[in-house]
Amino acid sequence: MLSFPGSLRVFIALEPCDMRAGINTLHALGADRLREDTRSGALFVFTNKRRRLLKVLYWDGTGMWLMTKRLEQGTFHWPRTAEVGQTKLELAPEAFQMLIDGVDMHGANPDISHPGALERVRRVC
Length: 125
Hints:
Helices cover 21% and strands 22% of the residues. With 125 residues, the protein is an alpha+beta fold. Helix 1 links the parallel strand 1 and strand 2.
């Protein structure tokens, strides 16, 4: 199981991409399509059309990491676009953890009595 600090920024590419892409291609997609600096220390997450495979690009300060996860069953529950033409969505690290663990966050109802719950869900959905 992976764990991530609460300060980590996570950007999800909302449009699927070709999963044959390697580090250089995903680095270019992060810069061109997502308009973010892929060397910022954030995670950049990409998936394919079937949503069974994802790749995560991460700069650790000394080099670029490329992590891959393939589901044996089911699909990743990818976030929906909020606006027409939106290419990326920023997720809270907790939401990213739920995404890679296979939790469906569509239609989730937060416990708004818990401090900060509503703000976390706004960042997630």
